[in-house]
Every structure is written in C-alpha cells, then in structure tokens.
C-alpha cells in the first residue's frame, strides 16, 4: 500500500501566504468581523482576458493550485479533488440578482454557468488540459477533509500517483449580510474580536484557497507525509478525548508522541468548548497551535490549518503569532490537527515528517 506525501503547497488567504516563507508578514486584525483576502497578482498566473470573467474563488483556486504544482515540480496530475462549503457563491448572487433586476428576462448565462461548486476544479483542469478524475466535495466543515480522504485512498490503492487536493471558499456581500442576521458572524461595534477568551457567539469570517500536491513517492522537496484522516459527524465534548486516543492508537501512537496539535479555535464561545477541554487536559503538555485568528472561519479553513501544520514540519518552527502555549520541542515530527464547528463535522488529520 502506497504512502501519501505532500510535495507542494499553495495558499491564498487573509494573510500574505505567497512569496513568503512562513507567516513572517502575518498581521493580526481584531477590529473586523470579516477578514479580507490578500490577493496575489492574478495576471502572473491567468490570462488578463480570462480574469475579468472569473469570480475570486476561481482565481484564488487557480493561483493556489499553480503554486502547489510549481513547488512539487509537476506539470500535470492524475486527479484533481476539491472541497468547498459554499462554492462559487459570488456568481450565484450575481445570477439571482440579474433574475430580479431583469424581471426574469434577457439573462446572460455566464454567472449561472460559473456558479456551480465544481467550477474551480473544472477551471484548473482546463488550464492544465487534465482530463483525469475530477471531483468536488461539498460536506460543510469537512468538505476539505472529504477531498483529502478520497485522495489518500486513491494513492493507497495505486489508482493515482499524483493528485491535486484543495479547499476553496469565497465571501459574497449578500450572503455575509444573511450570516450576520443569523448570528453566524460576530456583531458589529463589539470589538476587539479576540478568538481566545471570547464570551460571545459567532465568528470572524474569512475566505481562502489552499492546495496540496500529493504524490506516492518521496522527493527532495517532500514536505510531510499524511498518515491518517478521520471524519466523525457528531460528538459530545466528553467524547472527543477518547476518539482522539483511539485515532492515535490505530496509528500506533500516544499523546506523548505528538509534537504539536493544531486546534480550530474560532471565537464562538460554544464551539470552542471542545478545544478548551483538550487544551486544559489532554494536550496540556503538548505545544498547541491555533490559526483561525489569521484566516477567519469558513467551511474549508481547516485546509489553511493543514498548510500551517505542513509549514511547521517544513521549517521546524512555530511562529509566535500562532502559539497557544509557551511549549516548544527541539523538533516537530508528528502533528495532529483537530477541527469541528458547533459540535458537528469533527475531523482528525495526522501528518509527520519523512
């Protein structure tokens, strides 16, 4: 059974995660309820004629995938698998608005065609002229993990030797206004919006695109190995520790073998109970990392978390801006990522150095 290695990374987020090493230019914004994206120079990756027709989620996905392929030194892949929670919501809004504004007449189909969830995967395939397996998972907060799980199985079963896997989500104005009305996003004028120690409901929202070039062989540029991925639907706070211990035991590991743990704190007082319980008990003697204060919360924010975990292994360091506690290790070999949202869609991802 083949192993799965991360040989390339590409990340577009609310931080400058391109043309940098590892968050050395990161900025902590605790005054906004929505974190804006730091956009790259799109014309360096996409023909200018095509850019104007693309929603930002598509553009970011193309750029992030191109960065991952470049680092992995790959021209094409055997499969493209993406995960997204909201899909191309910006084009969906444009089309629905056009229906209302034009009284359901004289509609151009462009926004409708580009509003589907698999638009990003399709556009990447068109750019690469890749006619191989292409699938998009839309599973809420485990959309990215579902894509990662599929990719890992394909490599293990030798159905593919190289796979491009990514998580993409974008923001759109009207959808964000609905999220604010529903209480999903923190209320305005109640800042600073610090994730740690938050006593209110709601999150600081964000968007981003993160891609990984996975292969079945180690190269000189190999970053980390993906050991295991597990997805669970619903757990009580008291059940999480035993599930983590079982997950580690399957991989012949214990808590003492974990060199760092990445927890998906998002500032929602109820959702973060799951993480606080682990921080104060199970992982009290383990270096702890959080990341959504930099990326914002969105359905595939865990892909940004995996990018952070992979970079920790690659650079063998944890930037102060993502540290939850003051613990350090001489080396970071095995890292566990745990993410959930409002008590559902729990995911465990285990990576290690090679």
TrEMBL record:
Keyword Transferase carried by entry: yes
Keyword Transferase attributed: yes
Keywords of this entry: Transferase
GO cellular component term, pick one: cytosol
GO molecular function: 3-oxoacyl-[acyl-carrier-protein] synthase activity
Ranges for domain Beta-ketoacyl synthase-like N-terminal: 39-173
One example of a Gene Ontology biological process annotation: fatty acid biosynthetic process
Pfam name, any one: Ketoacyl-synt_2
SUPFAM superfamilies noted in UniProt: Thiolase-like
Protein's recorded name: 3-oxoacyl-ACP synthase
Organism of this sequence: Flavobacterium aquariorum
């Amino acid at each position: 059974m083949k192993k799965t290695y991360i040989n390339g990374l590409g990340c577009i987020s609310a931080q400058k995660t391109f043309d940098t090493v590892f968050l050395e230019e990161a900025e902590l914004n605790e005054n906004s309820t929505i974190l804006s994206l730091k956009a790259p120079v799109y014309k360096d990756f996409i023909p200018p004629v095509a850019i104007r027709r693309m929603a930002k989620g598509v553009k970011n996905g193309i750029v992030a995938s191109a960065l991952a392929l470049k680092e992995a030194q790959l021209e094409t892949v055997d499969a493209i698998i993406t995960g997204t929670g909201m899909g191309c919501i910006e084009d969906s809004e444009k089309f629905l608005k056009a229906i209302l504004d034009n009284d359901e007449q004289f509609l151009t189909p462009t926004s409708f065609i580009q509003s589907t969830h698999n638009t990003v995967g399709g556009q990447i395939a068109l750019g690469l002229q890749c006619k191989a397996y292409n699938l998009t998972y839309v599973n809420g907060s485990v959309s990215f993990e579902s894509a990662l799980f599929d990719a890992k199985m394909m490599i293990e079963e030798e159905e593919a030797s190289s796979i491009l896997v990514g998580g993409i989500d974008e923001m759109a104005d009207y959808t964000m206004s609905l999220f604010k009305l529903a209480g999903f996003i923190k209320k305005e004028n109640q800042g600073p919006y610090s994730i740690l120690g938050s006593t209110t409901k709601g999150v600081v929202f964000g968007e981003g695109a993160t891609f990984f070039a996975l292969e079945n062989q180690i190269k000189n540029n190999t970053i980390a190995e993906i050991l295991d991925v597990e997805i669970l639907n619903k757990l009580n706070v008291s059940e999480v520790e035993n599930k983590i211990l079982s997950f580690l035991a399957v991989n012949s590991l214990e808590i003492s073998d974990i060199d760092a743990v990445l927890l998906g704190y998002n500032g929602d007082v109820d959702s973060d109970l799951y993480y606080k319980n682990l921080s104060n008990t199970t992982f009290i003697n383990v270096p702890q990392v959080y990341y959504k204060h930099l990326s914002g919360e969105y359905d595939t924010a865990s892909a940004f978390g995996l990018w952070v975990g992979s970079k920790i292994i690659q650079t063998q360091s944890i930037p102060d801006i993502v540290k939850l506690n003051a613990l350090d290790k001489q080396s970071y070999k095995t890292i566990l990522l745990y993410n959930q949202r409002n008590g559902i869609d729990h995911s465990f991802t285990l990576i290690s150095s090679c």
